[in-house]
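Lecture notes, part 5. Sequence design as translation. It can be helpful to think of inverse folding as translation between two languages: the language of shapes and the language of residues. The source text, in C-alpha cells, appears below.
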C-alpha cells in the first residue's frame, strides 16, 4: 500500500507537469511555457523557414487545445482561415517532425480511406497541454487517452483508431493483423458509461477475432467476460509500468 501510494503520487505529478527532465525537477509551468516557445521558434519557425508565423502559432495552439478530437484538414483550414489545405498538412508534418504533435489515422483496409478520413491529434507531453491549451476544466479523460497514445508510440507500436458502428480508441497492428484493442476511460463509475465502453470494445474484438481487450481506467482493476471477450480493466499508472 505504501509503495502504491508513492507511485500514485509521482503519477499525479506526471499527469500535471509531464515528463521533460527540467520540469520533473522544478514542477514549473513557467519553464514549460518557455520550452514550448523554444520548440515553436527554434525547432520549427527557424528550422523550416516558415513565413506564416501567426497562422502556424494559431494552428499549434488550436491542436493542443483539442487533442483526442476528430479533425479534418479542410475543417482546420476553414476554422483558422488558411486558404491552402496543403499548408495545414505541411504544418502538421512539421509538428510531427519536432515531436510536438502526432496525428493518428483511422484503421481501414483501404489506405485511401485512411488518408481521407479524420485524424486525431495528440501532444507529446501532458505538461505542455496543461500549460498551453485553452482549457476550462481538468479534462482527465483527454489526458489519459493522450498518455496512452504517447506510451504506445514509445513502445514502437503501429497504432490506429477505429470508428464504425462502434468506436475503439486504439488498435495495435502487427504485420497484416490487428493484435490488440485498447479503450481508455478514466471514470467508469456510471453504468451507462461502463456499458458503452465495454460493448464497443467487445464488438471491435469480435470483428478482429481478438479473445481479449484492455480498458484503461483511473483505479479499476478486474477481469470480466463480455460477449465472449475477456475484458481486462487496468489502472493507467499500473499499465504504464
Amino acid at each position: 500500500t505504501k509503495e502504491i501510494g508513492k507511485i500514485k503520487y509521482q503519477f499525479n505529478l506526471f499527469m500535471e507537469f509531464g515528463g521533460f527532465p527540467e520540469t520533473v525537477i522544478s514542477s514549473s509551468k513557467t519553464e514549460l511555457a518557455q520550452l514550448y516557445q523554444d520548440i515553436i521558434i527554434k525547432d520549427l519557425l527557424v528550422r523550416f523557414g516558415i513565413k506564416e508565423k501567426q497562422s502556424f502559432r494559431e494552428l499549434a495552439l488550436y491542436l493542443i487545445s483539442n487533442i483526442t478530437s476528430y479533425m479534418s484538414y479542410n475543417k482546420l483550414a476553414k476554422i483558422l482561415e488558411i486558404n491552402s489545405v496543403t499548408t495545414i498538412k505541411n504544418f502538421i508534418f512539421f509538428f510531427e517532425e519536432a515531436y510536438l504533435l502526432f496525428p493518428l489515422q483511422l484503421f481501414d483496409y483501404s489506405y485511401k480511406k485512411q488518408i481521407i478520413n479524420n485524424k486525431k491529434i495528440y501532444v507529446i507531453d501532458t505538461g505542455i497541454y496543461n500549460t498551453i491549451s485553452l482549457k476550462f476544466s481538468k479534462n482527465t479523460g483527454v489526458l489519459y487517452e493522450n498518455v496512452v497514445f504517447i506510451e504506445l508510440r514509445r513502445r514502437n507500436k503501429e497504432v490506429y483508431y477505429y470508428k464504425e458502428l462502434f468506436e475503439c480508441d486504439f488498435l495495435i497492428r502487427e504485420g497484416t493483423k490487428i493484435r490488440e484493442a485498447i479503450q481508455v476511460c478514466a471514470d467508469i463509475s456510471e453504468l451507462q458509461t461502463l456499458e458503452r465502453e465495454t460493448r464497443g470494445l467487445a464488438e471491435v474484438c469480435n470483428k478482429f477475432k481478438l479473445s481479449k481487450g484492455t480498458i484503461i481506467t483511473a483505479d479499476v482493476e478486474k477481469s470480466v467476460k463480455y460477449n465472449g471477450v475477456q475484458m481486462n480493466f487496468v489502472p493507467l499508472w499500473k499499465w504504464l509500468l
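The translated text above is only one of many valid answers, since several sequences can fold into similar shapes. The chain has a mean pLDDT of 94.
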